[in-house]
Amino acid sequence: MQKSLHIDPSKCTSCLQCEMACSFENYGVFNNSLSRIKVFEFHHTGAKVPYTCTQCDEAWCMHACPVEAIKLDKTNGAKVVLEDVCVGCKVCTIACPFGTVNYVAETGKVQKCDLCGGDPACAEACPTGAITYVDANWTGLERMRQWADKLGNPSA
Amino acid sequence: MAWTRKILRVNLTDRTCTSEPLNMEWAHDYLGQRGLATKYLASEIDPKVDPLSPDNKIIWATGPLTGTMASTGGRYSVVTKGPLTGAIACSNSGGYFGAELKFAGWDMVIIEGRASSPVYLSIENDKVELRDASHLWGKTVWETEGQIKSEHQDPQVRVSCIGRTGENGVLYAAIVNDLHRAAGRSGVGAVAGSKNLKAIAVRGTLGVGNIANPKEFMKVTFEKKKILKENAVTGQGLPTYGTQVLMNVINEIGAMPTRNHKDVQFEGARKISAEAMHEPRESDGKAQLINNQACFGCTIACGRISKIDATHYTVVNSPKYWGASGGLEYEAAWALGCANGVDDLDALQYATMLCNEDGFDPISFGATIGAVMELYEMGVLTKEEVGIEAPFGSARALTYLTEITARGEGFGKIIGLGSKRLCEKYGHPELSMSVKGQEFPAYDARAVQGMGLTYATSNRGACHLRSYTISSEVLGIPVKTDPLTTEGKPALVKAFQDATAVVDSTGLCVFTTFAWALSDIQPQLQAACEGDWSMEKLDLMGERIWNMERQFNNAAGFTRKDDDLPARLKTEAAKVGPAKGLVSGIDKMIPEYYDLRGWDPEGRPTAETVARLGL
Fold first, then answer.
1. Nearest-CB residue to B323 (from A15, A27, A44)
2. Cβ(B392)–Cβ(B373) under 8 Å?
3. Could you tell me which of B190, B383, B584, B597 has the fewest CB atoms within 10 Å of its CB?
4. Widest CA span of chain B, in angstroms?
């Protein structure tokens, strides 16, 4: 079964545990500026929204890369940056419609979410269930269940 | 290790910024944040110094767990000699600033001297400079943060700053970060203002990478987060209702100080409670509360994000207040509401927004208004003097007085002195509900006896956060004690004071202690920091920190007589509720408390105590 990261912004509290888990998993440090997932706060509405790569099937970044440094991990569908191949040209950062591939000046390479090899640290760290790692074909399952509950168990 | 091992020392008089190594010997004895910063301050200034003079220093300090994945690991403290009390001042804040400072590579920033003109400190990792802040002077907290982000062209900059009250020397001015998180009490903002320091802006991209045992740290912090999630207070009560979960609880047990402590129950409590924040209002059918927000790394998320009723008289012509903003916390709702007899939920939300916007402590401010209203009802203060009719219960008076205090206009200047100086000025010092010049928080010392001792002996003046015995006396954490008796309270207060002194020095939030004992924090420290961090060491450290603060205060001139409560709480009995007929038994508790502490009858640590604690 292929899984994907599923985000429910209404549950996010902006604690940034996901960002720290990401930087720790990939770099061994707690450093939000290195995180591949980012939480955005919108002060005027109170909304907090985690955002990261959704692993497009026809990934713009992968197609744009001139040196084939972005590869599909067939085990989980992640588009993975091969650091030793990446030349830091940043074309993928332009190609990505969502902004989720970013350049890292310190390494001269780009980075993006690689689903941690199939066990995303952000989802594990999220204390509220705002970020989950679920069946890619059934990301709507939980929401369906909630509505089914309303339908089948009407309040007295 | 967990420390960055670097201190930034900034001399505003000379306009120099220098890096120096952290004293690691002290770090092992005082940890970080409250303990370590107080050690530095006490070693570097004369306790008798005028708090608002250039000779005072002010320290922004993180702890070893700040900026880590330990739940709530985002705290920083501001430590200085406080202008409201003349005692040690230590105020703690969450939000995101503390972690950012650590990520920039600094454990602490020590500010000395006074700048000849307004400045702000810009920190971008190792790149540190003092910048001109003339254009920011006179601006609110919200304007300052917005303008700095815009000038730096960096939305990710974190800002800790003062508003107009800090510039105007309001004696309970706060330092605010991330728009609505504050190092709120004891007037730390006035000290920054006296130094012409408007803000610290920080961007850190170095992170915290020197955890002693990373694998163990991840394992143990995950386990401890599970405890927070499964606990009724930290897992349900605080995320759902925030600290406001207490409003109805405390009112029901008759421990709600009302109308300047004349009463112990507020008939309007229900209307300003957490439950009321959840209820749809008439104008637009929406609840005031939008959602909850965490501080950095916090898996509890007690913070409130609210939207005021846009049709309310306070904001109907001010669209800038219509958006989501920091909502009512229990202490603010009490001080702005119950202490003044005001039960208008949106008036309180407006006042709390102004406290955030211009950076002043809603507890001391609200409690001062309580005294103003009592003086008004006595005829000592008049409409001409105050600028408005100000009887208890007047929301219009509350919001007007909040506005003039924020702006430093007219009678607002006198309100800015706090209740002690204000009541003295009008010939009624007995009406100031304060200890050491700092106003009480939201628990009546007649109905919760341990809190009376907590207030009387708190090193920063009246404060609930130095030993929150409400946990035991009301909530039964870790064990239930009878709130109406003084028996056993000296030992209870001492135990809470010492444990809290450690928690306040770690980088973690004291709210974790609703679910965690110090023994839950110990393994997190042990995994993060090199060396031995046994419970014995931590217990002794808490006591050491407490006594160090006490010694500072003693040297500043505080004595036995300052560990006391206002006469009202000792002579005017509670009129209703479980504590009906009771007064505070503070005089009984003090001698036993001194004895347990190893202090002489004058409240000074004995030579033996000093030696035992290595002070």
1. A44
2. yes
3. B383
4. 67
Q: Which residues of B touch A27 (CB under 8 A)?
A: 207, 209
What are the chain B neighbours of A24 within 8 Å (beta carbons)?
A: 69, 214, 218
Chain B residue at shortest CA distance from A127: B299
State whether residue A36 is helix, strand or coil.
Answer: coil
CB pairs under 8 A between A and B: 86
The two three-digit tokens of residue B380, written as one number = 């000592």
CA distances from B296 to A20, A43, B71 (A): 10, 16, 9
Using one digit for the tens of pLDDT, what is the confidence trace for B25-54? 999 999 999 999 999 999 999 999 999 999
DSSP codes, B37-83: HHHHHHHHS-TTS-TTSTT--EEEEE-TTTTSSSTTTT-EEEEEE-T
Owner of token pair 């008759």: B254
Give CATH for domain B258-432.
Answer: 1.10.569.10
What are the sequence ranges of the domains in chain B? 6-203, 258-432, 445-613
The 10 Å Cβ neighbour count of residue B374 is 24
Query: What is the CATH number that goes with domain B445-613?
Result: 1.10.599.10
Distance from CA of A13 to the nearest CA of B (A): 5
The whole-chain average pLDDT of chain B stands at 98
**Comparing C-alpha atoms, which of A103, A52, A106, A49 is closest to residue A79?**
A52
Residues of chain A with pLDDT under 70: 156
Is B69 in Cβ contact with A125 (below 8 Å)? yes
Query: What kind and span of H or E run contains A102?
Result: strand A102-104
According to DSSP, the residues that pair with B189 across neighbouring strands are none
| Rounded Cα–Cα distance for residues A138 and B531 (Å) | 49
- pLDDT category at B457 given cuts 50, 70, 90 is very high
What phi and psi, each to the nearest 5 degrees, are found at residue B336? -80, -30
DSSP sequence for B399-413: HHHHHHHHHT-TTHH
> What is the arithmetic mean of pLDDT over B275-293?
97
Residue type, B241: Y
Strands B58-62 and B108-112: antiparallel
Q: Is the pTM higher than 0.95?
A: yes
Residues B118-150: tens digit of each pLDDT? 999 999 999 999 999 999 999 999 999 999 999
The yes or no reply on domain B6-203 and CATH 3.40.50.1010 is no
Best mutation site among A10, A11, A12, A14 for testing chain B: the one with the most B CBs within 10 Å? A14
| Nearest chain A Cα distance for residue B9, angstroms | 24
Query: Radius of gyration (Cα) for chain A, nearest Å?
Result: 17
Q: Which range has the worst mean pLDDT, A142-156, B85-99, B152-166?
A: A142-156
Angle at CA B361, nearest 5°, toward B383 and B267?
A: 65
What integer pLDDT is reported at residue B64 of this predicted model?
98
pLDDT for B344 beyond 70: yes
Q: Give the distance from residue A28's alpha carbon to the nearest chain B alpha carbon, in angstroms.
A: 7
How large is the ipTM?
A: 0.95
Question: What pLDDT does residue A41 have?
Answer: 96
Is the Cβ pair A128, B209 closer than 8 Å?
Answer: no
Give the whole-angstrom CA distance, residue B337 versus residue B248: 13
**B6-203 matches B258-432 in fold:** no
Residue B454 one-letter amino acid: T
Query: What is the arithmetic mean of pLDDT over B529-558?
Result: 97
Kindly report the nearest CA distance between residue B371 and chain A, in angstroms: 35
B1: confidence class by pLDDT, cuts 50, 70, 90: low
- Candidates B176, B183, B77, B174; CA nearest to B416 is B174
Cβ contacts of A35-42, under 8 Å, gap ≥ 24: A36/A100, A36/A102, A36/A111, A36/A112, A36/A113, A36/A114, A37/A113, A37/A122, A37/A131, A39/A12, A39/A14, A41/A14
